[in-house]
Design goal:
Blueprint (H helix, E strand, L loop, with lengths): L2 H12 L3 H26 L6 E5 L7 H5 L6 E6 L2 H10 L7 E5 L12 E7 L8 H11 E12 L1 H4 L14 H9 L5 E12 L6 E12 L1
Parallel strand pairs: 1-2, 1-4, 2-3, 4-5
Antiparallel strand pairs: 5-7, 6-7
């Protein structure tokens, strides 16, 4: 891909827009589904819990969440109006259990200690003030809640041609240091590996990623 095409791809991975954004959203859901399902598993969802997903994309995975336990309440939040609209359209059958919220990307528009479980997949690269953002997550998470943060490691991401454009990359040590600067006190690190189709072509690549299970 040419430089300009890579820049457009990077912009749409951060904030999908328009028809191209809808295509990117479908591609992201397909390439990230392994990471997403692993994150959902690590939440250990229980009946009647209130869940927040940060950066839901088109939320094609929502049905996988809602079948994990009874009477779950899901809220998805995203900065992309395109993804917000796509998620509502694709998940209209779950209106009674799911809400989608469009926001500006910094302050979470929820009351303190509102959610039992919070998770996010492949969004940390775009957080402009990561420690402040982690503290926002801390604020809206219940005292006994769980926050799962999943990201692809720096060594893998640096090999992808589009990540040089406005991606902030982390290895496990850097992420651990970042979490330690926030209000969060405890975390468990799980390293995972999978084979996926690349976002720039049809080749299969091996992705190494990390699932952090974080507690107050």
């Amino acid at each position: 891909m040419e430089k300009d095409q890579l820049k457009i791809l990077a912009q749409n991975l951060a904030n999908p827009q328009g028809e191209k954004g809808i295509e990117i959203g479908e591609m992201m859901n397909a390439t990230n589904i392994g990471m997403t399902l692993e994150s959902i598993k690590m939440l250990l969802l229980e009946d009647n819990e209130n869940i927040l997903e940060i950066g839901h994309g088109n939320a094609g995975h929502l049905k996988n969440i809602l079948k994990k336990a009874k009477n779950l309440k899901y809220t998805g939040i995203d900065i992309s109006e395109t993804m917000h609209n796509e998620a509502e359209k694709l998940n209209k059958d779950f209106n009674d259990q799911a809400d989608f919220v469009l926001y500006e990307g910094e302050k979470l528009p929820f009351e303190d200690q509102f959610f039992d479980k919070i998770f996010t997949v492949n969004t940390v690269y775009f957080w402009e003030q990561p420690v402040e953002y982690l503290n926002e997550v801390y604020r809206v998470l219940k005292d006994n809640g769980t926050f799962v943060l999943t990201f692809s490691q720096r060594d893998f991401m640096e090999k992808l041609p589009f990540t040089k454009y406005n991606f902030k990359l982390y290895n496990n040590d850097e992420m651990e240091e970042l979490i330690s600067e926030s209000h969060f006190k405890r975390m468990k690190i799980s390293e995972k590996e999978e084979e996926i189709k690349s976002k720039t072509g049809d080749e299969v690549i091996k992705r190494i990623y990390t699932v952090l299970t974080i507690k107050k």
